[in-house]
Amino acid sequence: MRKYKQSILIKIVFVVIVLSFIGTIFLVWGRGGDKSANGPAGYAAMVDGTKISMEDFQKNYYRTRNLYEQIYGRSLTPEMEKQMGIKKATIESMVESILALKEAKNMGVKVTKDEVAAEIAKVPSFQNNGVFDFNLYQQTLKANRVTPKDFEESQEQDILIQKARNKVKEKATVTDADVMQEFKKQNDKVDLQYVSFSPADVKGSIKLTDAELDMYLQDHQAEFKTPEQVSIAYTLVSQASLASKVSVTPEEAQNYYQKNIDRYQGKGGILPFAEVKDQATADAQKAKAAREAYEKVAETANKFRAQGNLDAAAQALGSKVEKTALFTAQAPAAAIAGETELVARAFALKQNELGGPVETAKGIYLLKVIDKKPSAVPPLAQVRAKVEQKLLEVKGAEVAKKKAEEALQQLVKGGAAAKETGNFGYSATGAIPTIGTSPELMEAAFALTPANPVAKQPVKVGERWYAVKLKNRVEAPTTDFAKASAGIRQALLPKKQQEELDKWMKGLRAKAKIEINSTIKD
Q1: Which regions form coiled coils (predicted)?
Q2: Which of 174, 218, 257, 479 is the most exposed place for a label (fewest CB within 10 A)?
Q3: For the whole prediction, is pTM greater than 0.70?
Q4: Quick one: which of 56, 57, 155, 64 has its CA closest to 112?
């Protein structure tokens, strides 16, 4: 799966797997209406009076993100998460689970205790050598802090939803016309005429006014804000400097050896204390020095915290005070580069507040913020070039799309100078000669007919907008249609069933009152 993860089909399969799982884990491991509300607005979402708590949303969000990370075999960056819309997908799936459960009850769907028991028995986590193990079932639920009653109720709800979905899917039909259309799509070849425009093609014609630039800056302040900056004074106490002043008794060395026995392994296993006595004593001395150093720094910090007197604290510790210039969280001062926890603490402190101790591999820090500059939106004059570049990209995309829409009208009249793709067959990947890869455009191309040869709207492929017209369609002979029709009908049925489910859920959402917390963003 990872090998072919760039495939459009595989990505669709991933999304279906993940979104299906979200609904299940929401019902199994947390139900919005059963928990007390929390979060900035009291809840993550409200669905016809049923609350999805922020706690439940966060749990499902992190589980969903972990699923994606397992699928892709890597940690997701914030940019990747935003691109995938994981937060939105999570809350939408939780909302739809509530709507589906409510409608299942309205439909009169029932679930027996035997059905619940049978489903639970199928869960691999509850099986021992392929057979349901009641003790393992109880242990697994206990480990996840879920009671059998809550789990079984959630399983019942899950089965209710699945039964309701199955009833909806039963309405799906594949007509003879559908089968013939799919046969022709798979076997015909098309030749397209097209006209395309990209932002780069049109940006030379775009003139931006100061008013437009200023408005864009105000509407997109986060893109141009200067980052928050701080400068700090700090003192660093080395644990190693105190090690020579600390002694340990044989009993302390022995105790350290016992507590950290895994550190003292040889080829034949754990080495006896007598063989590693010197090393264990040195390690115990180092650990004791680090502990006593931290306690001493903490005691000193507490003594001078009220006055914020870092100089006095450093003098009491026998260390010196260093200062940094202003720096950002993304680009710390060179002297403290790599000290992630120290940098984080610096941005959490108020100006002139004494902070710490902060223990790192280098030693134990006390720090004080001596200057702090908040994030701010600079005046247009300072960021004009950046704003122009961003706005040109936006305007360029708008103009390119508009020109492609105008080209469609010209293609209808037959007056546009167009390029051609040459004949090509249908491909699920969406690979179109001379254009690129676009499943959307591929579907649109094979929906074109001599009677309706021009696409209804332009399609974006990469950075370009394409207006397309059918030049020629080479129809395949239908001699093999009878032989292929049964397979085509069977292959089309899941798609038709999904269309019915989508239509059903769209109707439920239209009738429901849904409020999603504004703090939940992609």
Answers
A1: 277-307
A2: 479
A3: no
A4: 155
